[in-house]
Specification:
Length: 456
């Protein structure tokens, strides 16, 4: 037997170049194996789905694009005329000239043509402020947020309506220094002092720092007073009644107002429902359950038809304003439950840790709890936003002609009346709604991935 030992050790002197992953586990093939053909049942379902797409997609593309009519002046452009006759032998596919003829009505409604530049300025400000705000890599987020939440709403209201509001004669008069105007401002200052005092007392009772919230309340009331004053100034713009608003602009106004108002109101209601104070908790529960138990169409009907019956003589509110308030309150109740679900998903240790480092209630909510809770429920928040955006079509029940309402209104024109008119307009409407809703859903996925800090 030999005593020699064989040295089996090996030291690599140079790195081996990385090999590409297997073809069957990466790329399109790998994705299809994992998601479409991972098992026998999934394979059968995939084949059934492909067969259904084969039955639907070619005919749809043919009707929408390939056989569609793209130019014409009236309804006969979308028909095949019988030889030697004037009556159409059969109707073709989608009639897109009809959409082109009514495109301005679909977007702007019955807004006066001479004032359309005001709507275009509002749309430009909206997208010019929203796009940079939605891109995390761009700077000046705080300034952009102040513009979108402070400057843009007031500027868009003045541009769309013309401003110069008299508030039915009981708020800001034409002459700010008149006796009635002076009395209004004195009453407004007294109301501000009362609200600030209540906030101070509440924060003091909850062992929080009361000075800063009271000061913020005074600043908020001052800003509100400034907004009321700006809306009463005559900028020389022709007034445009909200009854002339409509189309996609009306849809954006209702959706954006509801979305912007629903999130902060929903957060406050969620905090109120989880509050230890019985009065606040009871009020929040009643509010949330009431609005969640009533259909939105009933809310709109009550705000349009029943609410004016309970107001004193001579006191009126614009129909669009009543609809906006109803939509905002309705959406805030659903948003409150979404936010409350996120807060309940936070481990109890996070609350205890916030108290252990000396944070009071509002500080712990602002810096510890709410950031985590809102990140968890991003899908639910965006789902509520998407539902609200689609529910704007219900305002047609109270006579507000939004995007879908204008499309239905155009069906009464005999110049374009064809069997394919309604289908063409609804395909166009569905495409626009899908574009915005799909965009919101993809952006929510992007934000989820960006804010995901879990370790897998």
């Amino acid at each position: 037997m030999s005593n020699s030992k064989t040295d089996l050790s090996f030291v690599r002197s140079e790195m081996v170049s990385a090999m590409p992953p297997p073809v069957n586990d990466s790329g399109v093939v790998g994705w299809m194996r994992r998601n479409l053909f991972s098992s026998v049942s999934n394979t059968i379902l995939t084949l059934i789905g492909v067969y259904i797409l084969y039955l639907i997609v070619p005919g749809t593309l043919k009707w929408v694009f390939f056989d569609a009519v793209w130019s014409g002046q009236d309804r006969l452009a979308c028909a095949t005329t019988a030889q030697g006759g004037e009556l159409p032998e059969k109707w073709k596919a989608a009639c897109w000239p009809y959409v082109g003829a009514y495109f301005k009505l679909f977007i702007y409604g019955r807004y006066p043509d001479a004032e359309l530049w005001r709507v275009n300025v509002v749309l430009f400000m909206f997208f010019a402020g929203l796009i940079p705000l939605a891109m995390p890599s761009l700077p000046f987020k705080r300034e952009n947020l102040i513009f979108m939440l402070g400057v843009f709403p007031v500027a868009s209201f003045v541009l769309l309506s013309g401003g110069n509001l008299d508030y039915n004669g009981f708020l800001l008069p034409e002459a700010i220094m008149s006796p009635s105007g002076f009395k209004f401002w004195v009453d407004y200052i007294i109301l501000t002092a009362i609200i600030a005092g209540l906030v101070f007392a509440y924060m003091r009772a909850t062992d929080s720092e009361p000075t800063k919230p009271a000061l913020l309340t005074v600043i908020a009331m001052a800003v509100l007073g400034l907004i009321l004053f700006v809306m009463s100034v005559d900028f020389g713009l022709a007034p445009v009644e909200t009854s002339l608003w409509g189309g996609f602009v009306m849809t954006l106004v209702i959706a954006v107002t509801g979305i912007v108002a629903a999130l902060p109101l929903g957060i406050l209601l969620a905090l109120g429902r989880r509050s230890d104070m019985p009065a606040v908790s009871l009020f929040s529960v009643i509010f949330i359950e009431f609005w969640r138990g009533v259909p939105l169409i009933t809310v709109l009907f009550m705000s349009s038809v029943m609410l004016p019956l309970f107001l004193p003589d001579g006191v009126t509110f614009d129909k669009l304003l009543r609809a906006l308030i109803g939509v905002a309150l309705f959406s805030s109740a659903y948003m409150a439950e979404v936010v409350r679900g996120g807060m309940q998903a936070i481990p109890k240790g996070q609350y205890e840790g916030a108290m252990a480092v000396g944070l009071n209630y509002w500080q712990s909510m602002r810096m510890i709890i709410l950031p985590q809770a809102l990140k968890i429920v991003i899908p639910g928040i965006v789902n509520t936003f998407i539902g609200l955006f689609k529910d704007t079509t219900l305002v047609s029940i109270i006579g507000l002609l939004d995007f879908l309402g204008m499309i239905n209104l155009s069906h009464s024109d005999s110049n374009w009346a064809t069997p394919v008119q309604a289908m063409t307009s609804y395909v166009f409407c569905a495409f626009i709604f899908f574009l915005f809703c799909f965009g919101m859903s993809r952006y929510s996925i992007f934000m989820e991935d960006r804010l995901n800090t879990s370790h897998r």
